[in-house]
Design goal:
3-stranded antiparallel β-sheet, globular, Barwin-like endoglucanases, 4-stranded antiparallel β-sheet, alpha+beta, 18 helices, Enzyme I, Chain A, domain 2, Dna Ligase, domain 1, DNA binding, about 625 residues, about 40% helix
């Protein structure tokens, strides 16, 4: 390791530094240079007997980098604050940088040959700055849009979804081994979910052991907003409920521990601080990766093969799309095609064709996804959010779809045809870039050529946009590099000109504010009364909102005698009426405050606040 850190010789470290000097520049940990009091430099590579050197207080020894030294890590292009962050070094063999997978997201880094830069702060003040401002856990939340810029990714994200499925059970030996990966384990082993015939623990229990002590509710990727399903303990298991760190229901996936606002990572950082968030992210990866190594997971070619019925459905949908395209072509050639408002005949024709082709791809894609079982390996990665999308599944199994260049179907080249293999003036699907085959079946030569045309356009756009956006950003940086916040709360440039009287016009820390929705903001008077007025004469008093018995009746959460006493209490009636009147006044005040946001936002029921009111009330209820 040739990177050095200057250390001043003091009575407290002189013995340690003597040993480093004795080790020399070739043995780690050692030292490279000594700087005397007169600033003259001794290069230890050329000193024969290093034991002859007598260190004195006040000299500086430039020692090798060691474990837990603070370093700065950067990847170009540096487009935001999180492109350079502080890390603690871990010295390993070989000449490659290694870093946690979750940190690759803000760097936009992957492992296909990326180059990164490592800087070693050379003074105590620089190290203090890096430690208090630039360390990775302190920058988990981005001020750009108030969400966590780091989350669980790749195999850990895939594993945590499968681990928290409702039907996952863990044997005693495996559960105890997994607990050994929890650095904050307090020695308490939870009771097994199943005792007989042998003790079994659930994956949810294992997740609860590493979850921070927070109250949380969220929705998984497979959640469906069905008004008929009101019970959070429904068969979909898609509503995530965590009470004081215990996962009660729900499947943990990208929505819950990924890089999205309102995730567990985000809430933990806001409520428990960056240290607790760091521990959570470290432990979830360690425990889940251990569990996955024992359970195993692999994707094979069989995961991409649909059954015979699905293949027939796909072919039938494509044949139906071909027939529709032929009908549209016949109408256009006979002058019977209806022109769309403000469009020419050819534009109307192309829009009709695109609508048919998009519908066909959507239909065959849904058919392909429906054919895959829940335990399909590719579908598992998509549902977890760790890799791929539904479009990828449909292109692998069903059909690749229409290829576009400059937002339109493939245009004619020479002699009014796209390729020599097609007739002149052919407006059909195949000749204008529709790829009927899937990646599994393989593309024909013509389809492969059209597919390459679309891919080349993407490469060109990427190269051009990179240069343009880079230069735009540079100009913005040069224009605003002298603007800074002053002690009088104003933002001024180097000449003292005021840019803003208050940072962001509200003076709030962008890392701390959250977008919040007030449902009652746009309620009608009758809906507001239905939601918030408690009518003691109603039959619904004391009843749950979901069915709790086999008789399909709503259950009671209050005893009938208690309900009767409430109905006969005039003081309680008066208090409830006063509360409702206060809620009405509060809503009027809320509307008057939110009306100041500017034209066009009057109907928007959401706003940004530094305190999450909904979560505050929910935590108090818990």
């Amino acid at each position: 390791c040739a990177m050095c850190l200057p250390v001043t010789v003091t009575p407290f470290n002189i013995h340690e530094l003597r040993q480093l000097v004795a080790n020399g520049p070739l043995e780690w940990p050692g030292a490279m240079y000594i700087i005397r009091g007169d600033q003259s430099r001794i290069d230890l590579r050329y000193v024969r007997s290093k034991n002859d050197i007598v260190l004195e207080y006040g000299w500086t020894v430039e020692r090798h980098l060691r474990d837990d030294d603070i370093v700065l890590f950067n990847r170009q292009p540096s487009l935001h604050k999180m492109s350079i962050m502080g890390h603690r070094a871990k010295i390993l063999d070989w000449s490659t940088f290694r870093l946690n997978l979750s940190v690759t997201t803000p760097y936009n880094a992957d492992f296909d040959g990326d180059e990164m830069n490592l800087h070693v702060p050379q003074s105590i003040t620089a190290r203090a700055d890096a430690d208090n401002l630039m360390m990775v856990p302190r920058n988990i939340i981005t001020p750009q849009n108030n969400r966590n810029v780091m989350g669980i990714v790749q195999d850990a994200l895939l594993g945590v979804r499968f681990m928290t499925l409702r039907d996952v059970f863990i044997e005693k030996a495996d559960f105890l081994c997994a607990m050994m990966w929890i650095s904050t384990w307090d020695g308490f082993v939870p009771a097994p979910a199943i005792i007989k015939p042998r003790p079994l623990w659930t994956g949810k229990q294992l997740f609860s052991m590493i979850c921070p002590k927070i109250n949380y509710r969220g929705k998984s990727k497979n959640h469906k907003d069905d008004p008929k399903i009101k019970d959070p303990f429904n068969y979909l298991d898609s509503e995530v409920l965590i009470h004081n760190g215990t996962l009660l229901t729900g499947i943990v996936d990208k929505n819950i521990v990924g890089t999205s606002g309102g995730s567990i990572v985000h809430v933990t950082w806001l409520q428990k601080g960056w240290e607790e968030t760091r521990n959570f992210m470290n432990q979830i990866q360690a425990v889940v990766n251990f569990w996955m190594a024992n359970v195993s997971y692999s994707v094979s070619i069989s995961d991409t093969v649909a059954d015979a019925d699905t293949i027939r459905n796909i072919q039938s949908a494509l044949n139906e799309a071909k027939d529709k395209v032929r009908n549209i072509m016949a109408k256009a050639q006979s002058g019977r095609l209806t022109m769309m408002p403000g469009k020419l005949l050819m534009e109307s024709f192309e829009m009709n064709i695109n609508e048919v082709l998009n519908d066909a791809r959507s239909t065959v894609g849904k058919s392909a996804q429906f054919s895959l079982k829940e335990r399909n390996a590719i579908k598992g990665t998509v549902m977890a959010g760790s890799k791929g999308s539904e479009l990828n599944i449909s292109q692998i199994i069903a059909c690749v779809g229409q290829q576009n260049v400059q937002g339109k179907r493939i245009r004619y080249g020479f002699n009014q045809r796209t390729l020599p293999h097609f007739a002149k003036d052919d407006l059909g699907m195949e000749s204008r870039g529709f790829v009927e085959n899937s990646y599994l079946r393989g593309l024909s030569p013509q389809e492969f050529f059209f597919h390459a045309m679309g891919g080349r356009e993407g490469c060109i756009d990427t190269a051009v946009k990179t240069a343009e956006t880079g230069y735009i950003q540079r100009r913005m940086v040069k224009a605003m590099e002298t603007v800074m916040a002053r002690y009088d709360t104003t933002l001024r440039n180097s000449r003292g000109c005021v840019m803003q009287f208050l940072y962001g016009e509200d003076g709030m820390d962008a890392q701390r504010i959250e977008k919040q929705t007030f449902d009652s903001y746009d309620y009608s008077q009758s809906k507001f009364r239905e939601a918030y007025y408690l009518d003691l004469s109603s039959e619904q008093i004391g009843r749950t909102h979901y069915i709790v018995s086999k008789t399909n009746q709503l259950g009671y959460f209050m005893h009938p005698l208690v309900i009767e006493s409430c109905r006969n209490d005039p003081e309680l009636r008066m208090l409830l009426d006063e509360e409702y009147e206060q809620l009405l006044r509060d809503r009027v005040q809320l509307r008057s405050i939110m009306a100041c946001r500017g034209a066009g936002s009057e109907s928007d029921a959401s706003t940004y606040l530094p305190v999450n009111v909904d979560r505050l009330i929910w935590n108090a209820q818990r």
